[in-house]
Write a structure and sequence with these properties.
Neuraminidase; mainly beta; five-stranded mixed β-sheet; 1 helix; 343 residues
């Protein structure tokens, strides 16, 4: 007869395994770029800022990393002076491949929700516009049009339902936030009310929109430019969150003398990570002279927690739930190389 304690041993092991599974499922990782040697490299760290690992080590600068939804790949932009191209690598930094080979600039990559396509900014037709690439074939199509060179579109962010892309659109010197259906048939303003607009000699422009993981909100930057002795003066910028209809703006309570650089959603829309420096606006705004760190902002109560603090700049964070996957099983069958334009 089997001893009775064996049953309890099995139950104990099962409970421990369940705790381990639940603990791992709640983990998250953050990719970002930093400048320890003057150029930019890509790093990854745990959600609490620990276990920082460097992923790229080249003579060139890599920036704006974006983890795939399944955490198996990282998109990033590499500066190939005088232009930039988009690259992809496995989540552990290995098996790097180049996605674009254009003479113009290709930047700002982002993933589709299913991880089968990417959207990015390219100057293929002369002006910056948003393009979509199918990773399985390498084919691309242009999503936005430059209206005879009068406008440009950049900084795409894909909606979680896969049906829309929110982006910034520039008319001359003015920046707006627009939304384009994924079939490219309609492009329209996303926010309600005039944008940009002038209030008491202060020009307000909005840019860098980011869709929340749950699809309920969009975050964007709001910059302000004033006049002082008939000279333009840059005023503190803000992070604004609106609902998915582009209404009910809420300004995040970040100290106004902090200099903001970049931001992303975290904790499935409950938090925001942003890169900023507390050194203030009294000194010249030169990124090489400042020290940017990554902070966590909890939307529930506005609590700010610093999660990275090194002597170098930490920029462009991107948060994804779960640990990194480095297994080759189940990876996409991707045709890497020069992208081909679809008819």
């Amino acid at each position: 007869m089997e001893p009775r304690y064996t049953h309890w041993k099995i139950v104990t092991i099962f409970i421990l395994m369940l705790i381990l599974i639940l603990t791992n499922s709640s983990e998250a990782v953050i990719v970002f770029n930093a400048t320890p040697t003057g150029k930019s490299d890509i790093y990854v760290m745990n959600d609490n800022g620990g276990n920082v690992r460097q992923l790229t080590k080249t003579p060139l600068s890599e920036y704006k990393p974006r983890l795939s939804p399944d955490r198996k790949y990282i998109l990033f932009t590499r500066k190939l002076s005088p232009k930039s191209d988009i690259f992809i690598m496995d989540a552990d930094g290995s098996n790097e491949r180049r996605l674009t080979h254009h003479r113009p600039n290709d930047t700002d990559p982002c993933w589709s929700p299913d991880g089968k396509q990417i959207a990015f900014t390219s100057t293929i037709d002369g002006a910056p516009n948003i393009h979509i690439m199918k990773l399985a074939t390498g084919n691309i199509r242009q999503l936005t049009k430059s209206n005879g060179g009068k406008t440009s579109a950049s900084m795409p962010s894909w909606s979680p339902d896969g049906q829309h892309i929110v982006h910034q659109q520039v008319f001359g010197d003015e920046t707006y936030i627009y939304i384009t259906d994924i079939d490219g048939k309609e492009t329209r303003p996303f926010l309600h009310g005039p944008q940009p607009h002038v209030i008491e000699n202060v020009l307000i422009s909005r840019h860098h929109p980011l869709w929340s993981p749950n699809g309920k909100h969009v975050m964007y930057f709001e910059d302000r430019m004033g006049l002082e002795a008939n000279r333009p003066v840059r005023l503190p910028s803000h992070l604004i969150v609106v609902n998915k209809g582009g209404r009910l703006p809420k300004k995040l309570d970040i100290p106004k003398d902090w200099v903001l650089y970049s931001a992303c959603w975290a904790a499935n829309g409950a938090e925001i990570l942003f890169s900023a420096t507390e050194e203030g606006w009294e000194i010249p705004i030169n990124i090489k002279q400042l020290n940017f760190n990554i902070y966590r902002y909890r939307l529930l109560d506005g609590k700010i927690t610093q999660i990275a603090n090194t002597p170098t700049n930490e920029l462009d964070p991107h948060w994804v739930q779960g640990t990194l996957s480095v297994s080759p099983e189940g990876k996409l069958n991707v045709q890497w190389g020069e992208i081909k334009e679809e008819e």
